Amino acid sequence: MKVLKKLLACSAAAVVSTAAVATELEVTHWWTSGGEAAAVAEFAKAFNDGGDTWVDGAIAGSGGVARPIIISRIIGGDPMGATQLNHGRQAEELVEAGLMLDLTDVAEKEGWRDLVNPVRLLDSCTLDGKVYCVPVNIHSPQWIWLSHAAYEKAGVPVPSNWDEFVASAPKLREAGIVPLAMGQQPWQTQLAFDTLMVAVGGQDLYVKILNGKDADAAGSAEAAKVFEAYANARALSDGSNVNDWNQATNMVITAKAGGQIMGDWAQGEFQVAKQVAGKDYTCLPGLGVNEVIATGGDAFYFPKSDDPEITAAQKRMASQMISKTVQVAFNLKKGSLPIRGDVDLSAANDCMKKGLKILASGAILPDGVNAFSADTQGQIQDLMVEFWNNKSITPEDAQKRYVAIISDAD
Fold it and tell me: So what's the pLDDT on residue 370?
């Protein structure tokens, strides 16, 4: 009996001890669509299963809406426990101001540099040799998503590249289908332009402008073709009266639109709708012209805290997010590629397999999110939105204004 009492006492003590280290962390992010919510739930599950508590701080809208709120809270002294951002220059000033937690000890202990593929994703989390974020996925914007039902209704084959997509537009219109679904969020219009730059202008043009800030390249004949293609895309989107990107994706899912230029995160929406890649929809990386992917993505940063328990919980979360099990669970639902090259993705669908094949081939590009300062990025985005919504602006005029922006880019 005495032995039993001792065992019960030890068991109670263990429960108290576990509860004492359990910590609540508010996590801010902008993943609110169906597919995104299903994916982020995998992060929350892992954190909660570890004995801590994930307090969801989802911010409706896009990153453009969420980032100012996130940054304002951190600067204003009301930080969250963890926050989604795109790794790279978006958090640069916060890191330089000493407001973000240094994760170098976790990264070195777990060998992140040997795990993250491509390693440039970890480099984007690194400043002055220290790691300040955990990359969680590889996202590429260079895709077009095509509805099989829409093309069956129009009586034409599903396109295999951008030129065939443009050529199919009249038949789609005759069938009452909008050729190109496009939401009105500013980042969507810029994403379409950058995607067309890679497909129509070519990889060299993309790299010269984004990495080299080459104004001559921006004013070249190759770039002029991109602006012409962008004007065609603008015309093809007439009738796409939606705002959010996932609403545009839903137009493709419901065959109200033939296709959508959107990143690989669109896969999550198709999965939630129970649609099957290759059967219900087709995905074309590089618009079927240049099969490459840009290796950008999302990362989580952790605002610095004076509370050692919070700091410990933040590091636990970072470790979980990059673990094999969580990487697979999260990315299968998100539609993105894992940042680890040593995980089992036998359950990947056809579109994810295409991305994995391109990644393995080395046909990858740097992501545009790290190319320009927030000011330059804003100028480019404003131009693309104005051009997209004002058909009196010619491709030639838009290109001239673009050249001026690139000339002063930082």
Answer: 64
- Please state the pTM of the whole predicted model: 0.85
Single-letter amino acid, residue 337: L
Within 8 A by CB and 6+ apart from 105, the residues are: 315
Pairing of strands 143-147, 126-127: unpaired
Q: How far apart are CA 1 and CA 43, in angstroms?
A: 43
Tens of pLDDT, residue by residue over 279-306, are 999 999 999 999 988 888 899 999 999 9
Does 188 lie in the same domain as 265?
A: yes
Residue span of the structural domain in which 256 resides: 143-294+372-407
Please state, in angstroms and rounded to a whole number, the distance separating the CA atoms of residues 410 and 158: 41
pLDDT at 71 over 60: yes
Say yes or no to pLDDT of 368 above 70: no
The answer to whether the beta carbons of residues 120 and 295 sit under 8 Å apart is: yes
CB 375 within 8 A of CB 404: no
Q: Are residues 129 and 157 in the same domain?
A: no
CATH of the domain at 332: 3.40.190.10
Question: Interior CA angle at 244 toward 122 and 368, to 5°?
Answer: 30
